[in-house]
Amino acid sequence: MTSVLFVCLGNICRSPLAEGAFRKVMEDLGAGSRVLIDSAGTGGWHQGEAPDPRSIAVAARNGIDISAQRARQVVKADFSRFEHILAMDSSNLNNLRKLSPAEAPARLRLFLEAEGMDVPDPYYGGPAGFETVFRMVMTGAENLAAELGLGRQG
Ligand code: 4NP
Q: Is the CB of 42 within 6 Å of ligand 1?
């Protein structure tokens, strides 16, 4: 089974949206049972918390319920449990590289590597930032499904 872990800093704004978007894309493709999907943060300040209300709201407006997700910090076991670990921004990616055990099998990269873009941290901004993040992670999720060959023909 393919496995994907989405990672940001706090695991309350961006990576919960990426997780929700990719889950939705997989379910719409009928591939929901063929992939393990989770999200985590490099920091642990929000451990156990629900996603930011602004992330829950933008997801809900787009027909995705992320309200049951709970934040957690990346742990060493993630680097052997997940095949793909996708960082929202280059700072998250640098932190993941430092946390990764030397021989860990997980492939680490930027989520929007092909686009050459960071998903910007919306935490201290206004609601428009969450709309932008949602659009970015939705596009990223669709591209990821195609890349991993998880479409109907995959
Ligand atoms: P996220 O956003 O990394 O997209 O979940 C943030 C959430 C919380 C903080 C920073 C970014 N914080 O500093 O608490």
A: no
Fill in the DSSP letter of residue 44: -
Is the pTM higher than 0.85? yes
Q: Separation of 11 CA from ligand 1 center, angstroms?
A: 7
Question: Collapsing DSSP states into helix, strand and coil, what is residue 108?
Answer: strand
In one-letter notation, the amino acid at residue 85 is I
Contact 55, 36 (CB under 8 A): no
Tokens describing residue 115 = 């686009």
| 3-class state of residue 147 by DSSP | helix
Torsion on CA atoms 137, 120, 13, 122, rounded to nearest 10: -130
Interatomic CA distance for residues 64 and 71, integer angstroms: 17
Rounded Cα distance, 47 and 9, in Å: 11
Residue nearest to atom 3 of ligand 1 (CA): 9
Distance 86 CA to ligand 1 centre (A): 16
Q: Does 55 sit in the ligand 1 pocket, CB within 6 Å?
A: no
> Band of the pLDDT at 1, cuts 50, 70, 90?
confident
Is the distance from the beta carbon of residue 13 to the nearest atom of ligand 1 less than 6 Å? yes
